Every structure is written in C-alpha cells, then in structure tokens.
Amino acid sequence: MLQCHRFRCCYGLIVYLYFQDNKQHHVPYIHVRYQDDEVIVSIPEGEVLDGSIPKSKMKLLQAWIELHQDELVADWELAVSGEQPYKIDPLR
Predict the structure, then answer these.
(1) Is 46 left (phi over 0), alpha (psi -120 to 50) or beta?
(2) Pfam families annotated for this entry (predicted)?
(3) What share of the chain is helix, strand, coil (3-state, %, to 5)?
(4) How many CB atoms lie within 10 A of CB 74?
(5) CB under 8 Å to 23, separation ≥6 — which residues?
(6) pTM of the predicted model as reported, rounded to 2 decimal places
(7) Tens-of-pLDDT digits for all 92 residues of the chain?
(8) Where are the domains of the chain?
(9) How far apart are CA 58 and CA 79, in angstroms?
C-alpha cells in the first residue's frame, strides 16, 4: 500500500497525496474524501478524473485548488519523488 500525506481542505474534505503515485493518471492530481465519497481531481485544472463528491463540496474543493494550485503542484512533485510535502492551509 502506498504511503500518503493528508490535508484538511475545508468543511469535511480530506485531501490525500500519495507518495510515488504518478503512473495511473499521468498528470498531477489529488485524492479527496468526503464522508463515504471519493474523487480524484487533476491539479491545477480541478478536472474530475474519477469518482464524485456532492456538488457543493466540489465547488469548495475547486476554490481551494485555485487558491493553492502552485503549492499543490509543488507538493505533488515532492510526493511522487518520495519526499514529504509541505502543509497547505485550509479554505477559510
């Protein structure tokens, strides 16, 4: 099982970056969980690659991605090379 780094994005959304996981989608992306739902979203575009979460939560997630897109891409690059990502602030 792959190791991951977890962020609290906002309002119950949990964002995961998996270490050394760049083979499945071939673009920078994050895994996001909300309750029992999960979605995989590209960064920095915010495009859904797989899964779904409630529409209202998706809008919050996309706002967070837009605010932190450079940080997310940099953290994804660290994670896929096996390095510890930096903390990213939640949406307030």
Answers:
(1) left
(2) DUF4160
(3) 30, 30, 40
(4) 15
(5) none
(6) 0.83
(7) 446 667 777 789 999 887 766 666 578 889 999 999 999 999 988 899 999 999 999 999 999 999 999 999 999 888 888 888 888 888 87
(8) 4-80
(9) 23
